[in-house]
Amino acid sequence: MEPLYSALNAVKVLRANVAHVFEVLKGGVRADHGEDGKDTKFLLEFQELATIVIFNMRFNLSPGIVEQTVASLTPPPGPFNLGNTTFLSQESTQERQALYSQLVHSYKWTDKIHEYSNLAVTLLSQNSLKRSYMNSSSAKRRRTLTSSHNVPPQTVDNVIQTIDRLYTDMNVTVSRPFASNAVLQITLGRIMKAVVAFKGLMIEWVVVKGFTETLDLWTESRHKVFRKVTENAHAAMLHFYSPTLPELAVRSFMTWFHSYITLFSDPCKRCRNHLLNSLPPTWRDFRTLEPFHEECKP
Question: Is the dihedral of CA 268, 271, 277, 278 positive or negative?
């Protein structure tokens, strides 16, 4: 490929120099040639450019780099196998004649997908973070512990009812639209609402919206402040997760979520301001539950 690249580069240089010659001829005598002897200066410039073009033609093209490179190339052993794409040449309509270029583009796109997938597999295989305290080797040597995924619905209801009784300003409603897994609809005062999807006793998904918005699991809030709270709720969901103590994990998350009852009243603990970049403190510390702005959080 290197000799062929050199040949193509020589042709590219020649085309650029020829294009420059025609640009000079099209422009004619310019103001920078001056008034004295301007015709002579123009002819000298044209002669210099023509000499460069002649040099490229003599020493680079014939008999030069291009001919030597073409002579050194090995012809293909046989015709290329184009498969079913050979039938594209039989199309007579103008719309279908462009299919071949689109097909080539799709092949290139597929090759990039394979390349990026291989890189992703390499990176993910190095990631040791798992939502479990057990590995495959230890699971073979000991009896498998009860998973937080496989919890009877009655146990989940008892945990939720216990949490609901702790807070008078937070209303929790349980429904099961997807088989046995619970979905909570939480109303926090007149501040905001949330939908929390469970799998057993493990929190799978959280969506936070404003008090007057319609709740669902699929669309985010139209207000930026509640979109920020949703992002932080996802972080808290992963932070409090515990496969060995699932009930404690749910209670800790609910306690953290209840701290947003003062979302619009408490100032930031670091800057002491209620608003920063037009937003209240949307972050709550996982340990102390103190409010912070996104830019001020520790």
Answer: positive
Q: Tell me if 33 sits within 8 A of 41, measured CB to CB.
A: yes
Phi, psi of 45 (to 5 degrees): -65, -45
Which of 166, 133, 158, 130 has the alpha carbon at shortest distance from 257?
Answer: 166
Secondary structure percentages of the chain, helix, strand, coil, to 5: 50, 15, 35
| Residue whose tokens read 């496969």 | 243
**Does the structure show a pLDDT above 50 at 122?**
yes
Interatomic CA distance for residues 68 and 62, integer angstroms: 9
- The pTM for the full model equals 0.53
For residue range 181-227, what is the model confidence (pLDDT) as tens digits?
A: 899 999 999 999 999 999 888 999 999 999 999 999 889 999 999 99
Could you tell me if 276 and 256 are in contact, meaning their C-beta atoms sit under 8 angstroms apart? no
The 8 Å CB, 24+ separation contacts for 122-127 are: none
Three-point CA angle 132, 251, 230, nearest 5° = 80
- 71 beta partners: none
> Is 226:208 a contact under the CB 8 Å cutoff?
yes
Q: How many CB atoms lie within 10 A of CB 200?
A: 20
Torsion of CA 127, 132, 138, 140, to 10 degrees: -110
Q: Which of 145, 253, 263 is nearest to 197 (CA)?
A: 253
- State how far the Cα of 131 lies from the Cα of 128, in Å rounded to an integer: 10
**pLDDT tens track for 142-165:** 444 455 667 888 989 999 999 999
What is the predicted pLDDT for the residue at 121? 85
The total of other beta-carbon atoms located within 10 Å of residue 98's CB is: 12
DSSP letter assigned to residue 76: P
242, 264 contact by CB (below 8 A): no
